[in-house]
Amino acid sequence: MQKYKRVRRKKNNTGKSFFAIFILILIVVLIASLIKLYMRTDVSKINEDLKVEKTSQTVEATQETDRTIEDVIEEINHSVVGISKIQNIGSSIFAQDGIEKLGLGTGIIASSNGYIITNKHVSGDKYSSCYVTLENGNTYDANVVWADSTLDLSIVKVNLGGLQAVKLGDSNSVKAGQTVYAVGNPIGYEFERTVTSGIISAKARTLKFNDNGNEVLMTDLIQTDATINPGNSGGPLINVNGEVIGINSLKIDSAEGIGFAVPINVVKPIIEKYSATGSFEEPTIGISGYDKDIIPYIDKTLKLESGIYIEGVTAKSPAENSGLKVGDIILKIDDKSINRMNDIKEYIYTKNPGDTIKIEYRRGSNTNTVNLTLGKR
User: Fold this and answer.
1) Are 336 and 343 in contact (CB under 8 A)?
2) In terms of C-beta density within 10 A (0-12 exposed, 13-18 middle, 19 or more buried), how is residue 144 classed?
3) How many alpha carbons lie under 13 Å from residue 94 in its C-beta half-sphere?
4) Fewer C-beta neighbours within 10 Å, C or N terminus of the chain?
């Protein structure tokens, strides 16, 4: 009887041990399941967040991709205007004297408050007047507020607000072979907003030509094979994103597919100041100069690898007052390397008369620096 009881007691202890082990395993499995469920939920949440972010990025990329060149051209056309020196533009180009009566050119709206970029030979001199015709056909009086004959650029102001302005690009970043489009009014309003396409053929071209008996040198031009006709003058040269990189200016009549545009960067700081303040006081150093691309036209014996050769110093100008002389070579302005005359204009147009700049120049074999206070043109 005692043996039976002992055996019975031992059997009960074994059962209890198995039960305890079973409970322990169940607890471990339950904890593992909960951990796995938590991790799965957390990972799912992360994946869902990534999926949402990826979807958002895909939508944005798709929207950008869906913007075709047709959309770009349609948008830019809203900002292209006609510019004429006469108000009555009713004459047809098919009339014998149509083109002469129209005197038509092109411009682009550069700010919503009415500042328009065009060519100086289209608008006329500073303080003169002209007429601007918008896309809707309405014509308005306009005044030339700024003009530079060496750049063949001008800014015209029309007293309107809420205009659709173009986006100005970076002409320093253009490359040969890049696709571009020229927009303008080639020979009259019957063919307004004509679009031609081509590529950037070359950068930093220099042209020397006669204009009404005067010798003209234009530098740092963008060469393109996009067709440019007389009425295209002042119109935009745009890249595939619809950004204006140049203002169409002239073509070579003796060859096909050789046209030129003035790089937009030189006029961007002027537009920004006019748009923000309604005025622009043009700063000046008081020199005329040649870069390495112009030197061969002037003096074939003079060698210039970089910098600007000072050809003339205006009397009583900041340049003369600071001691700069003919023959000096400007290398840098405020640590910015200078290799074209447009580099000087592009930089100092961001300044104001009275501002001080530092000029690094070479005279003979010596390199010097001088502080110069900008004057007002």
Assistant:
1) yes
2) buried
3) 2
4) N
DSSP state of 57: H
CA gyration radius, the chain? 35
Q: How far is 72 from 239, CA to CA, in rounded Å?
A: 10
CATH code for the part of the protein at 170-269: 2.40.10.10
- 236-287 tens-digit pLDDT: 999 999 999 999 988 776 667 788 999 999 999 999 999 999 999 999 999 9
Q: Which CATH superfamily is domain 281-376 in?
A: PDZ domain (2.30.42.10)
Q: Which residues are catalytic?
A: 121, 152, 233
Burial of 111 (C-beta count, 10 Å sphere; 0-12/13-18/19+): buried
Q: Where are the alpha helices (DSSP H) in 66-135?
A: 69-77, 98-102, 120-123
Q: Mark 233-257 as b/e (b = at least 16 C-beta within 10 Å).
A: bbbbbbbeebbbbbbbbbbeeeeee
Amino acid at 262: V
| Bridge partners, residue 359, by sequence | 333, 370
**What length is written for the chain?**
377
Side chain identity at residue 154, one-letter code:
S
Evaluate whether 72-157 and 170-269 have a shared fold: yes
* Token duo for residue 220: 């740092």
pLDDT tens digits along 24-77: 777 776 776 666 665 554 545 545 554 544 444 444 444 445 779 899 999 999
How far the first Cα of the chain sits from its last, in Å, is 128
CA 100 to chain centre: 33
Q: Evaluate whether 363 touches 328 at the Cβ level (below 8 Å).
A: yes
